[in-house]
Amino acid sequence: MSQEVRNLEPKALWNKFADLNAVPRPSKKEERVIAFMMDFGKKLGFETIKDEVGNVIIKKPATAGMENRKTIVMQSHLDMVHQKNNDTTFDFDTQGIEMYVDGDWVRAKGTTLGADNGLGVATIMAILESTDIPHPAIEALFTIDEETGMTGAMGLKGGLLEGQILLNLDTEEDDEIDIGCAGGVDVTAVAEYDEEDAPADSVGYRITVKGLNGGHSGMQIHEGLGNANKIMNRLLYSGYEDFGLQISKINGGSLRNAIPRESVAEVIIAEMYDEAFEFDMQEIINDIKAEFKTTEPNLQIVIEKLDQVPAKVLPSMAQFYLVRALYTAHNGVYRMSADFDNLVETSNNIAKVTVGGGNLKIECLTRSSVESSKFDLANALRSAFELMGCEVTFSGSYPGWTPNPNSEILDVLTAIYEKQNGSKAHVVACHAGLECGILGQNYPGMDMISFGPTIKGAHSPDERASISSAQKYWKFVLEILANIPAK
Question: Where does the chain cross the membrane (predicted)?
């Protein structure tokens, strides 16, 4: 399958992407891809550095005639989000991504593709390996762990880079040039409880929410997509209120930066309510499906009897507070920006809910381009979860990237885009977490910009990269390199 991708144009880009996608590269498990990148740089004969947290820096001198241009940092992250369909058998720790061509799109077979941010990494690799592309001195920066904490960018110390301009290749619409982004903070609520024995004369059920689109919890948070954890909680709340439903287990969602696509719960009800429970639940299911018929046409909610009734359940009062706290906890857009049209300022994703074995955990990712608003929403979530008796922690906080409309490199990119495409690029700030804001803390004078090819469905198994957009983007990159301002 990868040979089909390798034959695409531009071959330099797609071949490096195929090489990269053969290497397992989960967030926080980047040892193999770090070794791969170190070996790549050394084989080219360039100065190749691994810093103390695992970021890789490869330095390539300017091509002839470009020595008087400013040194640039080309930056992308090595890790990728790992999501797969429930019916897909795949081991992200050991297998390379299985790609195929579908019309104008490159896709993966039942998993995320890794175009976020693999196409950016592959772009830089192709430039480093090239012998006929004019460019100034380049410092290629490959960061780790962008998707689950941005610890690579946070750990990059000042003084390692000399570049005056940073090209971040990690956005996903080819007609956009990003000059700002949101920051984020992880909100985690945990609690322990004493399991109770399931009452006699109980019936066990498994409730499954599946078939949702999922997607990027920043870039797609405004699209009205279904959140499996919130949908599941509606069902559990109604079952508890109307039939005394008791929860045994919940397993919903997987990653903080992915809108949860699936949730599974095991519950019990009194045998006397058996028929009425199924009938009433089907009415609620029909209502939910009607609400989401446009944005989630493939939503499935399945209620099936268990052969064996769960032995242990959540205590009644713990369950009372859990379903109410999850109902109260905000999910989705919290505030739109007052400064940029159609830009989400602040949002939250209730990403993961796990209950069972005496332990309860709720994991959220709160994003905002305004630091005070970020913590306003985080504190609202803290309050809801603390009222139910949870211990709540904030972690992994990272700053946003404040737009600089007077950027010199922005002027270069907008002029090139208009010349090549006959229309103006959209200069925007985005509601995703880019590393620019963090990198700017230790390199405050660096002029930063972010752009990339069109990628749809990032952070979900529907992730796909546009072939025609990659060609447009590659042409854009080459012209940018040839027009970096003089020192």
Answer: none
Identify the CA nearest to 150 among candidates 82, 75, 93, 77: 77
| 187 touches 353 (CB < 8 A) | no
Q: Chain-centre distance of CA 425, in angstroms?
A: 24
H or E element in which residue 447 lies: strand 447-450
Give the C-alpha separation, 254 to 366, whole Å: 16
Number of CB atoms found within 10 A of residue 96's CB? 16
Quote the radius of gyration of the chain (alpha carbons, Å).
24
Fold that domain 185-398 belongs to in CATH: Alpha-Beta Plaits (3.30.70)
| pLDDT score for 465 | 98
Sequence ranges of the domains in the chain? 2-181+400-482, 185-398
Please tell me the distance from the alpha carbon of residue 174 to that of residue 156, in angstroms, as a whole number: 28
Six-digit token pair at 27?
């967030």
pLDDT digits (tens, 9 = 90+) for 320-375: 999 999 999 999 999 998 877 888 999 999 999 999 999 999 999 999 988 999 99
- The verdict on whether 79 is a catalytic residue reads yes
- Which position among 116, 139, 146, 172 bears the catalytic label? 146
In this structure, what token pair is assigned to residue 222? 């405004």
The pTM of this model reads 0.77
Contact 409, 450 (CB under 8 A): no
CA 253, CA 365: separation in Å to the nearest integer? 12
Closest CA to 323 of 415, 197, 229: 229
- Given a cut of 80, whether residue 411 has pLDDT beyond it is yes
Instruction: Indicate the burial class of 198 (C-beta count within 10 angstroms; 0-12, 13-18, 19 or more).
Output: middle
The domain 2-181+400-482 is placed in CATH, from the list 3.10.129.10, 3.40.630.10, 3.40.30.10, 3.30.565.10, at: 3.40.630.10
